[in-house]
Structure formats: structure tokens, C-alpha cells
Write a structure and sequence with these properties.
single chain, 335 residues, alpha+beta, Fructose-1,6-Bisphosphatase, Chain A, domain 1, 2 domains, globular
Length: 335
């Protein structure tokens, strides 16, 4: 698929929403999430240009180790907090009854960002036809939005900017239904954006991704470099596949899931360490393309507000059910 940035995909007209109802319009909600992902991306690029990231360990006060020695989920910068502040404060203003989970704790978010309003949001221009049964199901009781304001914070600090993304996932009845992934440092005009919903479709910069789009080989697996040849469960399982797949070593969960969504890889294998905000958006988009995401033991994750948010059993994200089941089989063999 051509990954060049296409023309703007949103109309100039603004969105009019009745915020007195307890049912959300999915097209309006996704349009708002696209705008806010771009808003978060603009903050991230602004802080990068300043060069004063204030990178530190958010879990261990006074950690003097170099950022390169910290775990990916330990690193925090000023950009993380500002981006989450802008996204979540704006969503709460636009959708007063919407439940939202953000990666960063409230005390780590500055609370100084001016919220976006509906006058700032443009409705998706191209056909984004939401089935009536889906819109009618989007109630305040059943919908929750999952926000990772800066996925790949460690990569951001290390200068691997193509790995950075803003992730906003929408869950319905505890399962992913729609998502937005913005790459602020890829493409132009605010970054490349991939978004969509189950029963609607997936779009890359406004261009629909063909559900039949496949990667060049059905055995290209993307995974973290630390797992590639470590002799652990993931690398051993990959070695059991016939033919032996090509392994692409990349970092940042959203970045790796996006490779599968865009057809550049067949599957993403991830060990424990990711959380629901890392996977909600990508899982929704993969499901919309006929893909499958489960734990390494084949169990789907529930995106339940107020419950443990860790993806403690790792996960497989596959573009095809057939490859997914082959990977599950390889992972299930005990020597």
C-alpha cells in the first residue's frame, strides 16, 4: 500500500453534537479522537523541538540510571503529561458522560492545557458509514476510551522518532470497537493517521485499507529486539514455524501493531509488559481488517474500566486467523 501522505481527509464543517444524550455518535467520536490525536502529536513535536524533555523514571523517584537502561514503561517526559491533559480534558468537555482511561496518573498530568471544543473538530469527510445497531449500542454505560498520549516514550527520548505514536482506542462492552493511531514524526501535515472501526473499515490518511491487503510474506513477524534471540518462549515459538519467518526487530507497541495493520508484517508477538491503552486502538483496527489479538495463551483481553490494566500474559496480534492459530500452537508446545 502507498504510504505517502494524502490530501486532508476531513471536511471544513464543524461537528454538532447533542451532549445531553447518553448515546454517542461513533463518527463524531472518532472525528474528535482524530483531532485530539493530532493535538497530542503537535504537543509532542513542540516539546521535541524545545529539547527539554525532563525525562525521568515515573515509578522510582530519584532513579539516576540512563534512560536507555530503564524499562519502556518507566519513562516519562513533559510531553506525555501535556498530551494526555489536552486529549482527556477535551474529550470530557465534548462528551461529559464518557468514561476515559489514560496511561498517566492524574498527579503526573499538569492540567494547564486549553481544551479543544467542537468548533475545532471537523467531521470525517469520506464515507464512514456506521451501522445503526452500532451507534445505538454506544451508551455511556458501555463505552470507554483508552488513551496512550505518547506510546514509545523511551524511543522518543532516544531519538527513534518514527516509533512514536498517539493511541486512542474506543471499547464497547469491554471490547475494542474503534481506534486512532497517529505518528507525529511520520509524513507531513501533523503526521500520518490510521483510524477506523469494526463494521466500518480502516483508513490510512483518508484512504481505505483493503481488507485483503497482505504483507509481502505470510511469515514476517515483528517483535522487540530483546526477544528475538533470547531463547525465551517467543523466540522459541517463532523458530518452530515452518518456514522460519523473517523477524523484524522494532520497539514501541503501537508502532509494531501498526506494521501489521498496514500490511508490512503478518503478526506482532509481545511479551508481558504492555497495558490496555497500548493495544485497544490497534486491536480494534486489526479486528476491523479480519485480524485477531489474544494473549499468548489465546485468551482475549477485556477492556474493563476500573480493573487491572496490564496485559500481563503478553499478546499476539495477527493479520490473519490462520497465522494466529499457528502461532498459538507453536507457543503452546512445552519441552
Amino acid at each position: 500500500m502507498d504510504r505517502s501522505h494524502t490530501a486532508a481527509h476531513t471536511a471544513a464543517r464543524t461537528v454538532v453534537v447533542d451532549d445531553t444524550t447518553d448515546t454517542f455518535d461513533l463518527k463524531a467520536l472518532v472525528s474528535a479522537c482524530i483531532h485530539l490525536a493530532r493535538r497530542g502529536g503537535a504537543i509532542i513535536t513542540e516539546e521535541h523541538e524545545k529539547g527539554q524533555l525532563d525525562a525521568h523514571n515515573k515509578k522510582v523517584t530519584g532513579d539516576t540510571r540512563a534512560i536507555s537502561e530503564m524499562a519502556a514503561n518507566e519513562v516519562l517526559t513533559v510531553a506525555d503529561g501535556r498530551a494526555q491533559d489536552a486529549i482527556i480534558t477535551s474529550l470530557r468537555g465534548m462528551f461529559p458522560n464518557l468514561r476515559i482511561v489514560g496511561e498517566e496518573d492524574d498527579e503526573l498530568v499538569p492540567g494547564n492545557e486549553q481544551p479543544s471544543t467542537w468548533s475545532d473538530v471537523s467531521l470525517i469527510e469520506h464515507p464512514f458509514d456506521v451501522p445503526s445497531h452500532l451507534n445505538e449500542s454506544l451508551t455511556a454505560t458501555d463505552v470507554c476510551v483508552w488513551v496512550d498520549p505518547l506510546d514509545g516514550t523511551k524511543e522518543f527520548v532516544m531519538g527513534n522518532l518514527a516509533s512514536v505514536s498517539v493511541l486512542i482506542g474506543i471499547a464497547l462492552c469491554d471490547r475494542p470497537v474503534a481506534g486512532v493511531i497517529l505518528q507525529p514524526f511520520v509524513g507531513s501535515d501533523g503526521g500520518d493517521v490510521t483510524y477506523g472501526a469494526i463494521d466500518v473499515g480502516v483508513f490510512y490518511n483518508g484512504e481505505r485499507i483493503d481488507i485483503e491487503t497482505k504483507c509481502p510474506s505470510d511469515t514476517i513477524i515483528v517483535m522487540s529486539g530483546k526477544h528475538k534471540d533470547d531463547g525465551g518462549r517467543l523466540s522459541v515459538a517463532v523458530g518452530r514455524l515452518d518456514p522460519t519467518p523473517q523477524v523484524l526487530s522494532l520497539n514501541a507497541c503501537g508502532n509494531k501493531m501498526l506494521r501489521v495493520i498496514l500490511g508490512e508484517a503478518s503478526a506482532h508477538l509481545q511479551g508481558p509488559g504492555a497495558s490496555r491503552w497500548d493495544t485497544c486502538a490497534g486491536e480494534a483496527l486489526l479486528m476491523a481488517l479480519g485480524g485477531v489479538v489474544t494473549s499468548l495463551d489465546g485468551i482475549p483481553y477485556q477492556y474493563t474500566h476500573g480493573i487491572c490494566y496490564d496485559n500481563a500474559n503478553g499478546f499476539i496480534a495477527s493479520r490473519s486467523p490462520e497465522l494466529h492459530y499457528r502461532l498459538l500452537e507453536a507457543l503452546s508446545i512445552h519441552e
